[in-house]
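Researcher: Re-running this chain for the archive, since the previous output was lost when a drive failed. Same request as before.
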Amino acid sequence: MLTRFWQHRYVTVGIGVLLIGLIAASSYAQNKVVPRSAPRAAANPELARLRADVLEKMKESHAGAQKLLALHEEEKKRVYEEYLQRRELYHQGLIARVEVAQAERALANAILRVDEEKKWLAESEIAITEASTRDIILGLPILGAGGYSETAAFIRFNGTALWSIADSHKIEAFFTQTFGRGLPISAFGQTPTHDRLRFDHRNAMDVALHPDSAEGQSLLSYLRRSGIPFIAFRNAIAGSSTGAHIHIGHPSPAKN
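Model: Regenerated structure tokens:
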């Protein structure tokens, strides 16, 4: 089951940011919001079918990973209790220090495994959010140059800066200086998943922050001041913060 989990990881991570590009909806030459009468249909029925298949696999993989995480959480608890027992026995002089060291390594591995699985689940939820809300995004009004729009589910900004993912270090530096920790990037540039779907995602990245959190609000303010375009996802389902994140960059164009 663990092997299947990691296989699915490479299918799911970053797929949602890729699917944002299928929007292809921004008109950079206009200075006002232009209403759209109806969502545009997918130009390629085969690609639409592929997207639906991938989304279904993502959901299945996510459900399996949640069950696996629960098992590993229990294992981590068991290993921690064993570590405490060995440490006490060592202090009583009943076992050697090496036995405590073994328990410490087992605990460290269990913690690392759980942390990695939680990170993967968060990335998967971001991908599912973007894939699931694609049609909603398609139905939103087009933003002109410098345009800003905010709803209960999305915040969009069509910044006019000459954004390049090569400048991402500036965003990372701002965040680190402000909050004392690294920017939680969940998807950065092009990935094998983007290649499989024939999509160009070289100039975008996702950040695993809720846009309404203190950190998220600070980042969005910085992006607007800098003229950097973004789409911030508050939720996929009303009342839920699952999959909330910030997509930095313009919607990605499709490869020919």
